[in-house]
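Field log, afternoon session.

UNIT: design team B
ACTIVITY: writing a sequence onto a fixed backbone
BACKBONE:
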């Protein structure tokens, strides 16, 4: 496939056209367009459901998105510009965008490709400055969140966020490249985000931020999902997709432990160990390169935040033992993330996790932890060759910005789930202190009373 498209604001997506911009009315036309994993990974915040807040505009420099208020006025809120393009089959695709800044320039430009994979953030453009940017996206079938059957995916999506940025051209071509497959849980998976977008108030697995550290010589295919263990990743069909697609020379990164520890038969020295070894042997049979990643550390502390509690120490230990016994590379994410949390303490570390959560990172944290993975990849020659120059740090403000309901929201509280629609994540769904306490007591066997 090799296709170049000159854009205009009237190019709204339809299956007949095969490409175009996505707005709220377009998304409402088809059930498949409401499943984040088959699209850009964004969903409108619930209080705007049944509203149209994305306007597609055009000037001499290209097309751009504006936030549309109920009274018809526009505002430079963080409303992404969404674009979708149907393709021929499962493959890796090189996307090249022709971008340009408007008269005022662009203070912060962020790009997500595929299932909300971060490619760059906070990029600045001067007035009328042009940028031609290429990135790689993997397209593959997937079992979406809350579904049990495999869904066919045959489209490339991207989302651009940046007040003042214009896009005039999209070029897509299928390419021969290596693929890094990801197997893991919710700390790795492609998490959706609500919009208008706030990076501190959405979930983000480190797997969806890893692309920001990689060159266009390798694509990420993320099959991690929330709640998965070393056992359910296989039993629920995710591993079948991975093994069908992985070619000799491709890489698989395995990170489990957060959910294994909740099941007695998946103890670190028992089911967890045996399952990881089985994955290793099967990868070697297919000439696929396995890499183990020690589980991401939680931001868990006792009482007043003066004593850290490592809930995953046994899984970290066994993961490293397997690496030594079977000569498998280890990416020590557990130690790297724990060092960061210990150095910064409970309160500063909270800025990198979803509000009220001590396990799941937000976009700042996903980017940070992906950086730790990338730094560890430098030690592995088979992976180091795919790294690009280290991107600029993404540091959250001291006070977290949460999405705010408008004065006259369409919905005051989250509506019931409708078929095909997934309630988007936002800071308002943070766990309550009592929920956090109960889960801590369950995981580590102590009471905070």
């Amino acid at each position: 496939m090799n296709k170049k498209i000159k854009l205009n604001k009237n190019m709204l997506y339809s299956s007949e056209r095969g490409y175009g911009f996505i707005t709220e009315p377009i998304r409402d036309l088809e059930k498949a367009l409401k499943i984040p994993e088959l699209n850009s990974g964004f969903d409108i915040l619930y209080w705007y459901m049944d509203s149209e807040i994305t306007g597609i505009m055009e000037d001499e420099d290209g097309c751009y998105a504006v936030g549309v208020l109920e009274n018809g006025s526009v505002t430079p809120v963080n409303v992404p510009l969404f674009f979708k393009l149907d393709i021929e089959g499962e493959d890796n695709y090189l996307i090249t965008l022709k971008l340009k800044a408007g008269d005022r320039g662009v203070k912060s430009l962020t790009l997500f490709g595929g299932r909300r994979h971060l490619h760059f953030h906070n990029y600045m453009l001067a007035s009328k400055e042009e940028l031609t940017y290429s990135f790689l996206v993997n397209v593959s079938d997937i079992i979406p969140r809350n579904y049990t059957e495999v869904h066919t995916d045959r489209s490339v999506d991207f989302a651009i966020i940046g007040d003042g940025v214009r896009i005039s051209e999209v070029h897509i071509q299928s390419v021969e490249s290596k693929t890094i497959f990801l197997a893991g849980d919710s700390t790795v998976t492609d998490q959706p985000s609500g919009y208008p977008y706030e990076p501190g108030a959405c979930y983000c697995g480190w797997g969806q931020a890893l692309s920001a550290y990689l060159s266009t010589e390798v694509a990420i295919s993320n099959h991690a999902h929330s709640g998965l263990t070393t056992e359910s990743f296989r039993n629920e069909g995710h591993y079948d997709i991975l093994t069908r697609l992985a070619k000799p020379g491709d890489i698989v990164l395995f990170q489990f432990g957060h959910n294994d520890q909740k099941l007695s038969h998946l103890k670190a020295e028992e089911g967890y160990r045996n399952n990881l070894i089985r994955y290793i042997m099967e990868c070697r049979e297919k000439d696929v390169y396995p890499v183990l990643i020690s589980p991401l550390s939680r931001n868990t502390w006792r009482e007043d935040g003066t004593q850290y509690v490592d809930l995953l120490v046994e899984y970290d230990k066994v993961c490293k033992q397997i690496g030594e016994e079977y000569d498998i590379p280890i990416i020590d994410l557990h130690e790297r993330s724990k060092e960061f949390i210990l150095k910064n303490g409970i309160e500063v570390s909270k800025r990198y996790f979803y509000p009220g959560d001590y396990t799941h990172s937000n976009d700042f944290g996903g980017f940070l932890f992906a950086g730790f993975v990338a730094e560890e990849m430098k030690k592995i020659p088979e992976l180091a060759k795919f790294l690009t120059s280290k991107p600029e740090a993404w540091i959250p403000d001291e006070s977290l910005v949460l999405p705010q309901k408008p004065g006259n929201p369409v919905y005051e509280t989250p509506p019931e789930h409708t078929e095909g629609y997934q309630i988007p994540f936002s800071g308002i769904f943070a766990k309550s202190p009592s929920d956090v306490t109960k889960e801590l007591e369950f995981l580590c066997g102590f009471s905070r009373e």
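LOG NOTE: The first strand starts at residue 2 and ends at 6.
NEXT ACTIVITY: expression trials, pending approval
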